[in-house]
């Protein structure tokens, strides 16, 4: 039994996407250890069951761990997840938009969106907006979105036809663009939620040894990944900044910031552009049908 004094999140509800491995699993495990009721979201039911068992073993049998299996690259699944959350919970204190992929070959989802754009940006944009009523019902709520230092080379292509063109596609730019979108989304969300009980922040977790790449990731990217592996940090260390933003008393009133190493970090000029952020919001609303 974990002492109550070490369970500061007792009574809180947290949802973590991409929570069946890597940073997401480490984040969910620590939130549960601190007493939060945790909802794990993953695509694979078997992996989700193993993650649930691992968290309950680490956090104790009293840990409340729920599982939701959805592929969030599809907006219909994002809506279904939000619908289930609204039916089963009366509030949401912590939302961690962690799920993400490193693009492989060019892929369009069934709904007509480039896969990494759909997974890394449209899904957290839509899910956060759909869950705003639950977040607003909490005494104080936090939205934490995992971005990347890769955003420095990103830019937002406003034309969906260009983003959906195989001739224009690059795995590097697709990933960097989606990570830039994470920051712009966070800054616009924080501005829109100013004077509410909801904060929104994003972060670079560091170079973490996770299962981010897909089987069809380019040979060049795989070679770079394996070369860099000795320098990578563990998922537990990679989750530290996420947890700092999700649970630390020090960040309870901080909003609209980009963090790295558990401190406010510098981001690119594009990431600081209010014009870009406003334009991205309009694009996202049009492409998801969620305002």
Automatic annotation (TrEMBL):
GO terms for molecular function: oxidoreductase activity. InterPro entries: NAD(P)-bd_dom_sf (IPR036291), SDR_fam (IPR002347). Keywords: Oxidoreductase. Coiled coil: none annotated. Pfam families: adh_short. It comes from the Bacteria. Belongs to the short-chain dehydrogenases/reductases (SDR) family. This is Short-chain dehydrogenase. It comes from Hymenobacter amundsenii.
């Amino acid at each position: 039994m974990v002492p109550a004094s070490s369970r500061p999140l007792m009574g809180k509800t947290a949802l973590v996407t991409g929570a069946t491995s890597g940073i997401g699993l480490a984040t969910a495990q620590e939130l549960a250890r601190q007493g939060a009721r945790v909802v794990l979201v993953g695509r694979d039911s078997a992996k989700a069951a193993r993650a649930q068992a691992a968290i309950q073993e680490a956090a104790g049998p009293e840990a409340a761990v729920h599982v939701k299996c959805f592929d969030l690259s599809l907006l219909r699944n994002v809506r279904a997840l939000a619908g289930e959350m609204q039916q089963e919970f009366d509030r949401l204190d912590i939302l961690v938009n962690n799920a993400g992929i490193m693009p492989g070959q060019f892929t369009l989802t069934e709904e007509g969106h480039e896969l990494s754009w759909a997974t890394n940006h449209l899904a957290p944009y839509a899910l956060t907006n759909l869950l705003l009523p639950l977040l607003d019902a909490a005494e104080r709520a936090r939205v934490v979105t995992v971005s990347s230092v890769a955003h420095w080379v990103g830019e937002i292509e406003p034309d969906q036809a260009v983003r959906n063109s195989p001739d224009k596609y690059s795995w590097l730019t697709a990933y960097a663009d989606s990570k830039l979108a994470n920051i712009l989304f966070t800054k616009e969300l924080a501005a829109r939620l100013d004077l509410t009980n909801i904060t929104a922040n994003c972060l670079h977790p560091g170079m973490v040894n996770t299962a981010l790449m897909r089987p069809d990731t380019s040979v060049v990217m795989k070679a770079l990944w394996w070369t860099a592996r000795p320098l990578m940090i563990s998922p537990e260390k990679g989750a530290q900044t996420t947890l700092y933003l999700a649970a630390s008393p020090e960040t309870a009133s901080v909003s609209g910031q980009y963090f790295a190493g558990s401190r406010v970090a510098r981001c690119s000029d594009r990431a600081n552009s209010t014009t870009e952020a406003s334009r991205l919001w309009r694009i996202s609303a049009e492409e998801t049908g969620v305002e």
